[in-house]
Please model this.
Amino acid sequence: MPNSSTLKVLCVHSFAFHGTASTKAVMSLLGSQVLPVPSLLLSGLTNLPGIVKREVPFQELLASTFQLAEDLTQQLILYIGYLGSPKQVDILLGEIQSHRDIIQHILVDPVSGDHGKTYVPAEIISAWPKLLEVADWCTPNITEVKLLSGLPLSSATPLDTYIQAFRDRFPNLSTLITSLKEEGDIGISASHEEQSFTYWHEELSQHFGGTGDVFASQFIRYYFLSGYPLKHSVEQAADDTLAIIEGSIDKGSKELLIYPFS
Model:
């Protein structure tokens, strides 16, 4: 990875102790390249029973992490995922404005829901557009595209209509839309400047929390940190994610099993 000593991934995401997702997945794949700032602490993934959630001194941790990066002359890839409250959006916007000169790219995963269901408060979903307006990249799944498209939710509305509305709402945002489905395959629709393509691969029967975090982490690895072309980066990140899912299924695991890539 080029400039490994000065280029870091400042990851704002939840940290769940049980399960493999969010910050835990990102750090498993990108290691010491990551500057983790937890938005929320959880005893386990939100689909587990009886989990405990705890807030963190988010504003102080984020401000100090940005300032240390500035002092150490580091450049940042800012990766924003699961948020603990809508007020964290305004905190992030303030820090982005103060430190935009050391942020090379902003990638947002607007964690809101999946499989047609939401799993964060409506106030957080309503706050995401403010971050998407300043971001460079976004990795929403289909449910999140619908929620953030600005269109009313309706089973009668074609998926392409939601995707186009989402991209029209955020015209300066490059998008990697995940979880498209077609005849047993699952796809990622990429749109960046003049490039547009969809990459399809086999959909597996078992689903795990954290696959979106794995894909985003590997995309960051290939595209931003290693400098590979967009199409190669998307395809390789998707293939890596599929391999991790397959390996987890083969071992009979109930959660993703991640072994760091060399």
About this structure: The two ends are 11 Å apart (CA to CA).
